Amino acid sequence: MKTHPTPPHACPTCSHLLHRQQGLTGQQPPKRGDFTVCDGCGQILRFTEGLGVRAAGDHEVAMLSPDFRATLLTVRAHFQQQQGTATNAEKNKRRN
Q1: Total structural domains in the chain?
Q2: Boundaries of domain holding 59
Q3: Computed from CA positions of residues 49, 53, 54, 58, in that sequence, does the dihedral angle turn out positive or negative?
Q4: What single DSSP character describes residue 50?
Q5: Is 54 left (phi over 0), alpha (psi -120 to 50) or beta?
Q6: CA distances in angstroms from 15 to 9, 47, 61, listed in the order given
Q7: SS3 state of residue 63
Q8: pLDDT (tens digit, 0 to 9) for every residue of the chain, 96 residues total?
Q9: Cα separation values, 88 from 3, 11, 39, 64, 67, Å
């Protein structure tokens, strides 16, 4: 999987700084309209003009091919699980 640098933009959901993208289905750099997933919160995003990002609408995700939608949802679940694990670790650290 090839990593492509992108202009730095904050995720509109969690404000995590996004500055690179790994292709989910190929080696091509991202372009306007492509989908990605925030590695901070798991929000499904779409690239805008200038490779900014915006939250993808549910209707946009629903229109994807079943295979690609399943891939996006799997990646999102992975990042959400990581974030949940990190959040729980921080809570436990504060308790001790």
Answers
A1: 1
A2: 3-95
A3: positive
A4: G
A5: beta
A6: 8, 15, 21
A7: coil
A8: 678 889 999 999 999 999 988 776 667 889 999 999 999 999 999 999 999 999 999 999 999 999 999 999 999 999 999 888 655 545 555 554
A9: 29, 22, 17, 33, 31
